[in-house]
Structures are given as C-alpha cells and as structure tokens.
C-alpha cells in the first residue's frame, strides 16, 4: 500500500493500472 501511495504522483503508473484493468 505504501508503494501505491508513493506512486500516486506517477501518472504513468496510473496509466499502467488502467491498461491492466482492460486486459484483465
């Protein structure tokens, strides 16, 4: 969870999460 909060500012991270959602 700490890593997630730390990567909140990383927009590319969110983009990967969104892409992963579509693939899943």
| Beta-strand proportion | under 5%
Poorly predicted runs are none
Largest beta-sheet characterization: none
Alpha-carbon Rg, integer: 9 Å
The quaternary structure here is single chain
Q: What form results from the Cα inertia axes?
A: elongated
| Strands, count | 0
The percent range for helix content is: over 70%
**How many distinct helices?**
2
- The run of helices and strands is HH
User: What's the average pLDDT?
Assistant: 70
- The separation of the N and C termini measures 21 Å
Structural class: mainly alpha
Question: What key phrases describe this protein's structure?
Answer:
2 helices, mainly alpha, elongated, 0% strand, 24 residues, single chain
How would you sum up this structure, described in words?
The protein is mainly α. 75% of the residues lie in helices and 0% in strands.
How would you summarize what this structure contains?
The chain has 24 residues and is an all-alpha fold. It is 75% helix and 0% strand.
Give the SSE layout.
Elements: H1 2-6, H2 11-23
């Amino acid at each position: 969870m700490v890593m997630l909060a730390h990567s909140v500012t990383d927009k590319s991270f969110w983009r990967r999460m969104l892409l992963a959602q579509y693939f899943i």
